Predict the structure.
Amino acid sequence: MADRPHRPARVTLIGAESTGKTTLARLLAVHYKTVWAPEYLRAFVCEKGALPKSADSRRIAEGHLAQEASLHARARRVLFLDTDLYSTLVYHRYYFGTSSAWLQRQARKHAADLYLFTDTDIPFVADEGQRDGPTARAALRDLFLQELLDEDLRHAILRGTLKRRLSAATVAVDRYLAARYLTS
């Protein structure tokens, strides 16, 4: 997708569970005076009252895209996404042991302009019914990073304290936005 200045840049926070994606998405939206989309899977699990099944992946992806579309017009220069279809794809492979060609195509079609990968170097915080634990987090960390590399997605790796992550994130976003608007 060609970069266009009138279309807000889409920046996705991506990484394993309990790595600060939601906190960072919220803080970045405040910093850039824009909006952010919370993780759709969390709302889906709460509404369903159970963990998703393989067949739910398409509904999750469609729900995420609808949520993103509803926020698009309100975004100022950038829209922050707490996960996207690549997250759904990685989780689908991890939990169900299969790949979804449809989900892969949709993830590529709706790829963000920039990914902010949140590393696992912060303490794990349990969230019953939503998170599996530190063992899954370690495995998923590697899968998310490999997906970014395999798909050749523009990304920055965020590590350290919340303050360091936020600083690194704003540097990465500022660089992306500067390059985007210079070349448009």
Remarks:
- Residues 74 and 106 are 23 Å apart (CA to CA).
